[in-house]
UniProtKB/TrEMBL annotation:
Residues 6-134 form the 6-phosphogluconate dehydrogenase NADP-binding domain. This is 6-phosphogluconate dehydrogenase C-terminal domain-like protein. It holds the Pfam family NAD_binding_2. Residues 208-275 form the Phosphogluconate dehydrogenase NAD-binding putative C-terminal domain. GO terms for molecular function: NADP binding. InterPro entries: 6-PGluconate_DH-like_C_sf (IPR008927), 6PGDH_NADP-bd (IPR006115), NAD(P)-bd_dom_sf (IPR036291), Pgluconate_DH_NAD-bd_C (IPR015814). It comes from the Eukaryota.
Amino acid sequence: MSAPTLAIVAAGAMGAAVARRLTTAGCIILTNLDGRSPATRARAAAAGMHDVPMVELAARARWVLSILPPSDALAFAARFKDAHAQSRSSQGATAAAIAFADCNAVSPETVKRIAALFTGSGVGFVDAGIIGGPPREGYDPVFYASVAPEDSALLEEFAGLKRWGLNVSLLKGEGAGVGDASALKMSYAGISKGIIGLCSTMILAAHASSPATAQALLHELSASQPAILQRITKSVPNMLPKAYRWVGEMEEISAFVGGGEAQVHRGLAALYARIERSLQEERKGEEGGEDVRVLRAFVEDAKRVVGQGQGQE
Ligand SMILES: NC(=O)c1ccc[n+]([C@@H]2O[C@H](COP(=O)([O-])OP(=O)(O)OC[C@H]3O[C@@H](n4cnc5c(N)ncnc54)[C@H](OP(=O)(O)O)[C@@H]3O)[C@@H](O)[C@H]2O)c1
């Protein structure tokens, strides 16, 4: 069986790493770099991706994997749909079948709106949600996938991408359809990123009361919740460069949860926006950046305390 041609947009931390996994297995990976930053262009080149116009991408790829900031997922799908319509009108009956997998952290409602864009367009649609970090040596995240009940053959074909290195897990069975893979992703991320957001919120609030309060919080966590303190030492620094992207993700989770409880992740979206503002102030060398300094200092102190605790064992 010859390796398929796929398209991945964009070459972000996740998209480029997935592309590298697939190019290593012999797949041709197309992308479109119009308007993209030098960092994205460099990642695309390193992963062996080919930059082509959107219309060519729509004409050549069997699968399009949309892997970009959640807030851009719907707009990109609409852009791709237009490119596909253009490529179809020039290729006519000779046009090859193509399927679009939205792999972003979007709410089931958003993914259903994306799926609806493709109704009657000749583009197959898979709802996918990635759980885990970018692929690296010896590690692959899971691509959970679900489809409309009538598209089960397409779901099996998506599962066939395992052969080329994509770690696919199918979400099928009673009641499963478009929206469920995204619901799973929202539920998982709502817990994992929610915990990090909650810890960061309380560290900042404790410090705002007084630096002594933050220190007391650290020592009480060490004494009574050492697993949480240990987790903070890793997860808070890992979160900082992703805070900007988590704003949109928390908003999607909030829409997914709905009702009064939607306020929980809406509040965390505000927290991640606040952290991103603080990072930008720090980057520009402006006054501010205080929140990021507080979080980093807490983590450094926590590492020392955790290290001392382990030394005593
Ligand atoms: N990273 C992870 O650990 C992880 C884990 C699970 C799921 N995911 C999912 O993967 C998706 C991407 O995450 P990521 O970590 O790869 O993000 P990222 O590193 O921030 O990269 C985002 C990429 O999207 C590009 N981009 C931004 N706006 C775009 C647009 N309108 N059209 C086309 N490309 C655009 C960016 O290009 P510029 O550089 O030009 O801005 C960049 O290359 C998200 O939906 C996320 O939920 C990520």
